[in-house]
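From the thread on structure requests for the teaching lab: each student submitted one protein with a one-line request. Submission from student K.M.:

"Model Biotin synthase from Acetoanaerobium pronyense, tokens only."
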Amino acid sequence: MKNYLIMTSSTSNMLKGDNLLKENSINTVLVPAPKEYGSVCAIAIRVSEQDLEKSKELLKSHDVNVEGIYEDLHEKLDNIVKKLKDKHISLEFKEITKSIEEGKELAYEDVLYLLKTDRPAEQEALFELADEMRKKVVGDVVDIRGAIEFSNYCIKDCNYCGLRKDNLELERYRMSEDEILEIVNDIKNMGLKTVILQSGEDPHYTKEIMGNILKRIKNETGLKITLSIGERELEEYEYFKSCGADNYLLKIETTNKAIFDEIHPDGDMENRLKCIQKIKSLGYLNGNGAIIGLPMQKEEDIAKDIMFFKDMGINMIGIGPFVPAKNTPYENLPHGDVRMTLKAVAVTRLVCQRVFIPATTALLTVDRSAQAKALISGANSLMLVNTPETYRENYVIYSNKSEVGLDYAIESIKEAGRKLPLYLTKSKEV
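Reply posted by the TA:
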């Protein structure tokens, strides 16, 4: 059965329309929209063909401003099968490639094959396919965002994270509202359009305190705001949205419950999923992601993670290797495999298509060339670390974290043969 995408004139219209349709027993899914129907990462309401006419009538009768309705088609890559004819690849890989060329959605078994293949020709072809898909759906410009790690206090005790509450060796810090705003203004002066506010799960920053920070950032700079502050009460997500938050990043990290429970001894996977659903229902651009190389993790788990991102209609997907942190139960474990991480990035681009995928800092920490490799394997964004040096060394989710400054980001983008964003002030000088 066909599905259709309903594009509205604004986020408020989209939320009003989505709630209206749900109240009338119409099954809807909020998904990233094709760039030709709106900006990259715009959100569309997806409905089935059988519900389309009823949806149109309801939206019209309740004055929801609809800008367009389009069939939900999977992107195609033309003539890619011919390009692979001289490569040493299997019949199964050729069949998967044919599905991509014809615009068919990849099945779980296809995803698993791509993750498991150890044939050099197939791996390189995978990266090429993902890079072509990236070029088609989001273009050549690499989006750059600035991050402020404003607190390293955390009430959780995750086994992999250096911020865990039982790490008594860590010197803790909290940034004041004025300190945060000073760095936000520095980010604006670079020309960047989005600031990421990231912290441990720190209850010191109450709903009211965070709300004031968000309002000041919006009123004083107009920047888009991504929050990454963990699990909160559901009404807090709604309040943060009303105060100016645009995006929310809350990673599932793994969809395997046994692994989730192992790495989060005081965590609750059901609550994490409820939070992710609530964030999505409020119209946030929804950020999520996975860690590659966790204890007990297999390719099957990574494949299920990728299918989860597709089914959830996630807008931003961060995939990085596990990197051990000192003073944690996992400090002596090996880091995640870079090649598997790059394969996961590439497959995610082919499966989820119209999304932002960062070349993560964790990749850079493990391999100095890996960020540029990710940018030619499906990734299309970079995150700068703008945390003041006074605090930076104590924000240790993992140890020996590489710092991504503006100069290094520009170097990585050029190395990958990609384009700098026009909004970047410094790009006018290079």
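TA comment: The first strand starts at residue 3 and ends at 8. The radius of gyration is 21 Å.
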